């Protein structure tokens, strides 16, 4: 693999020769050697919904930057912020639609952190000052800052840091392929949701501020949707025990799963939603939380300013990028395309089950994943030190397809998966192109792993 050696810029891996990116358009990227790659995972991790090189976005950003870019946000508001907030409120799911307020920040980790801050501050203002725990789930990812890691249940990304934070309790994930309760849906009575009540009672509802979950688990379980009925039970338990429900839609929001919001598949309304990636599709770093009016109005009535904020929040250039991105998603019916082409993709992905090393395929809309097994009958994973998802991802990369390797489906310490999330503009013909590379890579993978 070609790369320009550089001893100064630190990138995540020491053992990977990063090719230099030259340009990107639609679902394709090219390196400086002229090699073409299909963006099969949405720009690494489920970001690039509208695709690359959409001229309208930089045009809107440039225009905004010419008028003004950075401004003293402690003293001024900006029209783009107000416009974006109205736009998001107008498409918010369920009872949040036009009954919510939007707070802008910069990254997904800051959005989940601010969601937790809002939950905490809301209860404090209401006099329930003990409520401070954010209950989470194992095999969940809510970001990489230290508090987000405490809510997250992705062992490989948290274990080293646990002495640095106060850990938050967790319930098992909704993960049918490796059900924690060794049950089968629907006969399972959705124990994975009902166990939330046990966790709340054990920690004491008076201590629990919120429960956080991804509607479709992204990097921790490679596109694993909760089963039908799951979030309805979660919502009901949260209501019964006065616990707020935070939907982490950093990956799923704005069409990725074939609905504008991931949680719409379950028809329930969260109290707070965190979103980021598809909000600007990587053209500029922007994230947000959307929360019920009542939460904000409680703070307002008490004269309690929201205790959160980063210097670069609500950048006018970022707001312009987000407005144009949402308009683009709407204008080009990308939510519908994600549903139609996503169904086609998931249908074709069933073909992978013919391989000895593939145990499961799953997903919703254009957020899809598959899981490797060393033994299909027992679902035994490969030894984690063999890093099989990385090995596979390198095979697809050589063949011009970017896939996202994930790990940790088995007790957080083993279990290799691949997350696929091509841009929502992808056509069925392009899915066929992706499938051809997946087949070719799997044949090479099996020859390497099991012998020819
Ligand atoms: C579900 C979820 N929440 C939060 C985050 C954190 O977002 P960021 O990487 O922008 O901080 C991610 C990132 O992958 C995510 O997938």
Could you list some keywords that capture this structure?
452 residues, alpha/beta, seven-stranded mixed sheet, four-stranded mixed sheet, 18% strand, binds pyridoxal-5'-phosphate
What does this structure look like?
The protein has helices spanning 42-46, 56-67, 79-91, 108-125, 146-151, 155-158, 191-203, 230-240, 277-280, 293-301, 316-331, 334-349, 388-398, 428-450, and strands spanning 21-25, 28-31, 36-39, 100-105, 133-137, 170-171, 208-213, 216-217, 224-225, 244-248, 272-275, 287-292, 358-364, 367-372, 401-402, 404-410, 414-420. The chain is α/β, with parallel strands linked by helices and 452 residues long. The mean pLDDT is 96. The protein starts with 20 loop residues before the first strand and ends with a helix. The protein contains 14 helices and 17 strands. β16 and β17 (414-420) form a beta hairpin. It has a seven-stranded mixed β-sheet, with helices on both faces. A four-stranded mixed β-sheet has the order 1-2-3-15. A four-stranded antiparallel β-sheet has the order 13-14-17-16. The radius of gyration is 22 Å and the shape is globular. It binds pyridoxal-5'-phosphate (PLP).
Give the SSE map.
Blueprint: E1 21-25, E2 28-31, E3 36-39, H1 42-46, H2 56-67, H3 79-91, E4 100-105, H4 108-125, E5 133-137, H5 146-151, H6 155-158, E6 170-171, H7 191-203, E7 208-213, E8 216-217, E9 224-225, H8 230-240, E10 244-248, E11 272-275, H9 277-280, E12 287-292, H10 293-301, H11 316-331, H12 334-349, E13 358-364, E14 367-372, H13 388-398, E15 401-402, E16 404-410, E17 414-420, H14 428-450
Parallel strand pairs: 3-15, 5-6, 5-7, 7-10, 10-11
Antiparallel strand pairs: 1-2, 2-3, 4-12, 8-9, 11-12, 13-14, 14-17, 16-17
Bound molecules: pyridoxal-5'-phosphate.
